Backbone:
């Protein structure tokens, strides 16, 4: 192992040990299930904003998105545009009202529990359906994070992918197991800052090293037509996007309303003054990060001396960091710190997904359906055991080194967005929504995505045959069924309507700090 690798390894060691120490510190403060799941609703604006955005973007931001822009050109930015629109709408429409409603709805600690309390579901239909959806789709989502971590270690150190996957999984599991929600949020806050600094700094340095006048020529020398590459209306190979292509990419915006690991941050903010602060911080972070992630793909195509193989294109940012600091500048330890930013992007989402899945199993399934008399300490330990089980299953899914981070994230994002997005929005803004409507929305959204993406009809899935992203069709079907079924069945009772009006008017729901 040469000196450059040793310096990078030292940076990784410092970073990973720091994350574990944070987990250990918060383990002493985590004494109840509410502490483990929501941190006692004590998040400040900065921590809420950066942890929400860091847990949102994941390894996709620094690997998936730059990789697809690197390979196919600026036409891939439509996904980033959709995600920015979704981020803005989520902070504006959902954050404050969801926090209010989860307090008014019997201080709900998880999204499934909120839906149960919101619709007075005495038969636990929503609780079971939403918990199953979370477990199914978050297993895939968590696997994408672990796979990204394995690819990072493999690319940097040349160690076997499975060994790298194991190291990353153990660290993420360690601090999530120990510290719960607050450990996850504090580490995500640090990781969000590190991601932002890295995503801005590296492409600017690489751009300066290439020289602005050489970018177009360098891209052309890699075998691409620069006019096609910089045409946002085609896919990079000279083929123009169809309306369905653009709708599918913009459709990623719809996923935000149904992401439990993001929504739980809104539920946990200290007060509404902090939410107002978080809104501006989160939106600003998102805008900068998405713009520079796309810039990484463009600059990487011009800066790196050799064209990356198809299965290595998602490593473009990693390769840029190594070349900048190990080859051109010669400060490998600093390069190692920035590589930790890629690891931060991966860990900040995987830890949140582990925690949400754990809360769904322990609080929503075990406590609500199996052992209603379980005390808080027992639920806490069931939660920690669940974190281990989920991590192991996700690890097994991620064992294939050729698995696409973009593909795994895309499928999980669609499943969660279609299952929960329409139901969450309608629960907050349409008082006529009732229990049968909400149940129809969750079930139809999940089933549509599963059928669209995974069930071959005539040798092809509907996703392949139509080119339409499953989230778009799943969201539309779920929303339509919520309205149709709600109108066709009994209207909500007076108590449910009163709760809706209380939340709307800020009564008995923690609506301080206006």
Residues:
């Amino acid at each position: 192992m040469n000196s450059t690798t040793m310096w990078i390894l030292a940076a990784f060691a410092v970073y990973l040990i720091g994350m574990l120490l944070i987990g250990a510190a918060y383990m002493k403060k985590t004494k109840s299930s509410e502490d483990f799941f929501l941190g006692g609703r004590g998040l400040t604006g900065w921590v809420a904003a950066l942890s929400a955005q860091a847990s949102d973007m994941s390894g996709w931001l620094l690997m998936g998105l730059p990789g697809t822009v690197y390979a196919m050109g600026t036409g891939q930015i439509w996904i980033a545009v959709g995600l920015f629109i979704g981020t803005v709408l989520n902070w504006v429409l959902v954050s404050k009202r969801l926090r209010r409603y989860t307090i008014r709805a019997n201080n709900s600690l998880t999204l499934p529990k909120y839906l149960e309390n919101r619709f007075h579901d005495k038969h636990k239909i929503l609780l079971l359906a939403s918990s199953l959806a979370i477990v199914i789709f978050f297993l895939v989502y968590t696997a994408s994070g672990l796979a990204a971590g394995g690819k990072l270690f493999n690319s940097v150190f040349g160690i076997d992918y499975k060994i790298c996957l194991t190291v990353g999984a153990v660290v993420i599991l360690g601090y999530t197991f120990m510290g719960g929600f607050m450990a996850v949020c504090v580490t995500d806050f640090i990781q969000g800052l590190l991601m932002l600094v890295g995503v801005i700094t590296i492409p600017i340095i690489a751009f300066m090293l290439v020289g602005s006048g050489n970018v177009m020529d360098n891209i052309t020398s890699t075998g691409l037509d620069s006019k096609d590459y910089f045409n946002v209306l085609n896919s990079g190979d000279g083929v123009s996007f169809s309306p369905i292509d653009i709708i599918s990419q913009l459709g990623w915006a719809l996923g935000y309303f149904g992401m439990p690991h993001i929504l739980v941050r809104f539920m946990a903010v200290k007060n509404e003054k902090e939410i107002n602060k978080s809104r501006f911080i989160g939106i600003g972070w998102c805008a900068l990060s998405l713009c520079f992630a796309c810039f990484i793909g463009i600059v990487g195509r011009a800066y790196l001396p050799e064209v990356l193989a198809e299965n290595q294109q998602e490593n473009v940012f990693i390769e840029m960091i190594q070349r900048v600091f190990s080859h051109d500048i010669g400060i490998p330890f600093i390069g190692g710190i920035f590589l930790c930013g890629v690891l931060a992007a991966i860990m900040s989402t995987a830890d949140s997904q582990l925690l949400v899945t754990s809360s769904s199993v322990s609080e929503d399934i075990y406590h609500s359906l199996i052992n209603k008399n379980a005390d808080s300490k027992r639920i806490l330990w069931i939660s920690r055991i669940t974190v281990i089980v989920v991590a192991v299953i996700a690890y097994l899914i991620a064992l294939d080194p050729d698995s696409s981070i973009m593909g795994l994230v895309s499928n999980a994002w669609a499943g969660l967005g279609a299952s929960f997005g329409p139901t969450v929005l309608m629960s907050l803004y349409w008082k006529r929504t009732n229990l049968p409507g909400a149940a129809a929305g969750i079930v139809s959204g999940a089933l549509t995505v599963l059928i669209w993406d995974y069930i071959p009809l005539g040798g092809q899935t509907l996703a392949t045959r139509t080119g339409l992203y499953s989230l778009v069709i799943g969201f539309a079907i779920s929303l339509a069924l919520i309205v149709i079924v709600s109108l066709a069945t009994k209207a909500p009772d007076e108590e449910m309507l009163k709760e809706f009006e209380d939340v709307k008017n800020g009564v008995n729901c923690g609506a301080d700090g206006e």
In short: The radius of gyration is 22 Å. The chain has a mean pLDDT of 83. Residues 161-210 form the longest helix (50 residues).
